[in-house]
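From the pipeline queue, job 12 of 40. The input is one protein chain; the requested action is below.

Action: predict structure.
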Amino acid sequence: MTRAVATGADQILNLDKPLYTIGITAEILATHTRTLMMYEHLGLVVPSRTASNRRLYSQRDIMTLGAIQRLTRGYGLNLISARCLILCLQLLDANGVPRPAELGDIDVEHTRV
């Protein structure tokens, strides 16, 4: 019996697959579960729900929340400003316009706000 080897696109992680509970997500991001609920209430991230209504966050959700945290904690932005800046950075990247040097460390390639 031979075993198929995953290659190319098969190896790409599905960033939208809901995997992490709110507790695990809070631990990964070093934040409180209430903070994640507030982000959800503001529409910054919308986790999937199980049949029993438990929140499940995807890798993309965690990347988005991480970018928001870097902007709010590291740059002192409020949440709405962080959302707008992420959208602006995505537009700059999509159109090949160089970013300001100060914002070169913010990864927004896989974020969704």
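Job complete. The two ends are 46 Å apart (CA to CA).
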